[in-house]
Amino acid sequence: MIRKLVLSAVLLLMVTKSYSKDYLITDFGAETGKLCTKSIQKAVDECFAAGGGRVVIPAGTFITGPVILKSNICVYLESGAILKGSENIDDYRMGETRRGIFFCEDACNISISGDGTIDASGSSFYDFSQNHGSPDFDRSLTRQKENYMKDGTFFTDGPVKRISMPGMSIVFFHCTKVTLSGITVKDTPIWAIRFGYCEDVLIDGITIRNNVLIPNSDGIHCTASRNIRISDCDIVAGDDAIVMTGFDKNENIPDYSMKEQGEKKYGNKSIYAENMSVTNCQLRSSSAGIRIGYGQHPIRRCIFSNITIYDSNRGIGIFAHDTTDIEDLIFDNIIIDTRLYNGHWWGHGEPIHLSCVSRFPKHEAGQIKNVKFSNITATGEQGILVFGKDKSRIENISFSNVSLHIRKGRETSGYGGNFDLRPAAERPMQIFEHDIPGIFAQYVSNLTINGFDLTWDPALPEFFTNALEINNFDSVQINNLNGGYAPNSKDSNDIRLSDGRGFRIINSTSRGKDPVISKNKVVN
Fold first, then answer.
1. What is the reported pTM?
2. What does the pLDDT read at residue 483?
3. Which ranges of 200-298 does DSSP label H, i.e. alpha helix?
4. pLDDT reported for residue 524
5. How far apart are CA 350 and CA 333, in angstroms?
6. DSSP label at 372?
7. In which residue ranges of the chain is pLDDT below 70?
8. N- to C-terminal Cα distance for the chain?
9. pLDDT for res 6
């Protein structure tokens, strides 16, 4: 609390010093309950022309379409201020493009702060009586076959059908020194906040309240950006809550170009998406609470600590599904609670998921390297997944002081017993039948498990199996495993190993005895 008060005071001092003159939007013709886009833009433009200051939104509800922000502008929402997105899709058109509420490109020293609310009216652009999306997998490969997401079923967990859509609600491209603090953002129709190719970003004490049934309504999504600090945020998202990706503006090609970055004055000039620090946050997501990966730029140097992830489809997801690597990540002191969602969401209730699976045909995925998980308390309806491939191995992964309880949930029979690796270029790698151990790992080098407590619900189906299943490995060390095979498993081996070398286990028990270990083609 003391830290937060000090940080808030510093932010207020910075805002007061940097933005000395106020531009009240009502002085430029804005009226409560009416469309005020032009008035707000005029206030921004005059503020910018004068060298910068605060554009103040007073108490009341002001309707808006897209507003273009510029350097040295602080948008300040007073207590009781509601900046409400128009429910008319035509109000978001800017030439051939639809924007959201705020858009800023190639600018420096911008902030949005205060105690007010940005309500993007996202639910207005969806039909809540119909499903969104169609199968992007082969049902015949799942455990449930044609009963898996059966045609004609309405999925109560969403996602719901999109009718039309404004752009992302708050967008910064190629910006340097951006601060968001204090505000509430709610009901966005797609990503709430995006930072693309940005540098030096501070996000403190904001709240995001999106509709968990709306697809792609991410919380904070950072693409090819660097030097990002996120703290004391409370996020509910209808997709990933906090995201670091390496996306180029064109997400659907396997390579990236530095040309656009070189043409801009501000923003990230490196090839890396890097240096993200996230702490003291609460997250809920219909996909992943924390997602690292996808995108053409390599990702590195991220740390996440003191975080609660609850009622989410996935906890932590790390995805090397492009050709570049992801490395040097730390996750510490995190509580995770996940469940299986029905409907066309990616994820299967995994508390922790790492995968290297290409989303581009004829391209190999990159690698995941140097990742540490420590002091993790997790409850979920699936195990932990570490899924490498022969040419995209996962290296130097450690789990230290991890507790996992696997429970039976509402959707276990209808959806359980499958791995979900989407997006994947190969159809058989998208969703497919697989038994569920406490930890499954394959094509992994230097895996260390030091303190792993595993418990199971007594009524789980028999496809829940071993405590650990590890295949195609090079060097696995286990210390202080406490747990064994699932109560209804047909396989009574606590640990199942195949096709590997360098296995060592010490100080471990299962049901008060030494673990039962099955080895096939394992060389010590």
1. 0.95
2. 98
3. 259-263
4. 84
5. 18
6. E
7. 1-20
8. 51
9. 46
Which tokens belong to 164?
A: 């039309």
* Cβ count near 490 (within 10 Å): 10
pLDDT at residue 133 in the model: 84
Q: How far is CA 355 from CA 245, 259, 340, 513, in A?
A: 14, 30, 18, 33
Residue type, 358: S
Handedness of CA 394, 378, 429, 237 (dihedral sign): negative
- Whether omega for the bond prior to residue 159 falls within 30 degrees of 0, making it cis, is yes
Query: Is 258 exposed, middle or buried (CB count within 10 Å of its CB: 0-12, 13-18, 19+)?
Result: exposed
Q: Is 192 left (phi over 0), alpha (psi -120 to 50) or beta?
A: alpha
Between CA 227 and CA 223 the distance in angstroms is 12
**Joined tokens for residue 493:** 């081996």
3-state secondary structure at position 388: coil
Distance of alpha carbon 274 from alpha carbon 225, whole angstroms: 7
Q: Output the six-digit token pair for 472.
A: 């195609």
Q: Give the distance, in angstroms, between the CA of residue 517 and the centroid of all CA atoms in the same chain.
A: 36
Domains, the chain, in order of start with CATH, read 2-434 (2.160.20.10), 435-524 (no CATH)
Spatial CB neighbours of 455, under 8 Å, sequence gap ≥ 6: 404, 405, 406, 483
Q: What pLDDT, on a 0 to 100 scale, did the predictor assign at position 252? A: 86
Is residue 106 a contact partner of residue 265, using CB atoms and an 8 Å limit? yes
| Per-residue tokens: 229 | 């600090």
What pLDDT, on the 0 to 100 scale, is given for residue 20? 67
DSSP string for 216-237: TB-SEEEES-EEEEEES-EEEE
Q: Is 11 helix (H, G, I), strand (E, B) or coil?
A: helix
- Would you give the DSSP letter of residue 341? P
Task: Label residue 154 exposed, middle or buried (CB < 10 Å: 0-12, 13-18, 19+).
Answer: exposed
pLDDT for 14 equals: 46
